[in-house]
Amino acid sequence: MIYLDNAATEGSKPHCVRSAVAASLKACANPGRSGHRLSLAHAERVLSCRDLLSDVFDGYGFERCVFTRSCTEALNIALLGVLEEGDHVVATTLEHNSVLRPLQYLAERGVITYDVVPLTDGKLRPETIAAYVKHKTKLVCVTSASNVIGVSCDLAAVKRLLPEHVLLLVDGAQGAGHFPISMKRSGIDLLALAGHKGLHAMQIGALLFSERVNPRPLIFGGTGSESVNLSMPSFYPDRLESGTLSYPAICSLFEGLLLVKSGEKNRLRALTEELAAKVSELRAFEIFSPPNACGIFSFRHRSMPSEEIAALLSDRFDIAVRGGLHCAPLAHRALGTLQGGLVRASFSIYQGMHEANALADALRKIET
Questions:
Q1: How many helices (H) and strands (E) does the chain have?
Q2: Among 73, 65, 70, which Cα is nearest to 49's?
Q3: Which of 162, 259, 260, 315 would bridge with 166, disulfide CB 3.0–4.6 Å?
Q4: pTM score of the predicted model
């Protein structure tokens, strides 16, 4: 199979990541929960991964790097753990449901209000985002890159236009690993990450946050610290990490971050540009993604639903893509694709024109 669903989960992990996971399963203790040598060694590896996370994303130290089950959980902590009654939030039309649904949940209960920033000429404009900020605005949510069409926004420019008291939350699920994200230089207060996409890891998430925020825990339980206290610890990361951490997933993330830090080459912008040139020759298809570093190439057939095209690509050509709304309904509404959705082909940095040509050839045969 030609796997072109990397925006959902990177399909093939690098050898160093697979080796790290295999090694972690040969001697798998609970990191930091016990005093024996193996548990302590695992705890040191976990700490090393926190340090590396802070280093790669220009964060605020290991204690403000929290591991989560997923990027969705990280975003829920960032929103439900920070927002309070009476707060106003600004989000964008390109946000994933992992942002929109927690906001809607809080709004339906009368806790917060929120506004959604529209696209301007198909783009997110920092000045448009800033124009939606009100006196009660506490938080602005901006995706690092759209999971539908791959476009990104100048995060530092957004931050420069915000009042000092407004926090900036970035959903890094798609952008992280594909292009540099610096929390300090861009003024990011909360950065949610997905390990299993551009960071080459297993399914794991992380939340990095600045000293301007102190998120409340959403999950309560054992932390291995202050066990006599029935309340959660007051210090991070323990305050937000109840239960046993996934040591194999953390080992995979550590290796993936090392690859990102090494400056691995990303040719996905050129790849998506070349693919667009080929598919644009096919009159039956309409392209929605500009060239982008995330490797996202979204398109639709002018008469067939996206999920039907995705099924044809899978059944007839053994090419895995994703059709539908990609958990981002407001983005599709803005693009005019809410009815029928889009087909999203998404490439990893380890793929190239061989896979792109296979997709273009398959679409040519579907057209005829």
A1: 12, 13
A2: 65
A3: 162
A4: 0.97
Question: Which residue from 17, 43, 18, 64 is spatially nearest to 260, judged by alpha carbons?
Answer: 17
What pLDDT, in 10s, does the model give residues 80-124? 999 999 999 999 999 999 999 999 999 999 999 999 999 998 899
From the CB of residue 361, how many other CB atoms can be counted at a distance below 10 Å? Answer: 13
Distance, in Å, from the CA atom of 239 to the CA atom of 222, rounded to the nearest integer, reads 10
Strands of the sheet containing 113-117, edge to edge, are: 65-68, 205-209, 190-194, 167-171, 137-143, 88-92, 113-117
Note the pLDDT tens digit of each residue in 218-271: 999 998 888 888 989 999 999 999 999 999 999 999 999 999 999 999 999 999
b/e map 257-274, b = 16+ CB within 10 Å: bbbbeeeeebebbebbeb
CATH ID of 15-261, from 3.30.70.260, 3.40.50.720, 3.40.50.2300, 3.40.640.10: 3.40.640.10
The letter for the amino acid at 298 is S
CA separation for the pair 230, 64 (Å, rounded): 23
